[in-house]
Amino acid sequence: RETEASFAALADSMPQLIWTAQPDGRNDYFNARYREFTGWSADALLNERWQNLLHPDDAPVLAERWQHAVRTGEPFEAESRLRRHDGVYRWMLVRALPVHHSEAGTIRRWFGSCTDITDLVEAVKSPPAAQPNWKRWWRSGRRLCRRPNAASPTRSA
Prior knowledge:
The protein has 6 helices and 5 strands; from the N terminus they run αββαααβββαα. The protein is of the alpha+beta class.
């Protein structure tokens, strides 16, 4: 019980949508941020209705990839749109890793996350003129990082 409470506290402190699943791929946990994002209760999400939150164009591919990962035990990664509580779809980078029983090597549980990548997807799709000058930004940032700080205690006189 204490381990579960510690995990929930950790998962709820993260900016990602965190979820877990049983070895057969059925979800058994969604963190508070996931529930806030979707506006759904834990019960609604746990009853497999979370799949209704996927964009209709993404759902079949995501389901196929997830079932492949569950069958093979391979790490899972996909990009998909997930519907937010206000009806807006946000692009997510969805990842999951299996945790194995040490002695048997069988999957004990899946740990997954959804990271909002909408801003990145939109930046890539925008015309080049609308994109920031990343090279100039990168160069100036690197110069700032290399510039000695006069207040630094490690700077020699």
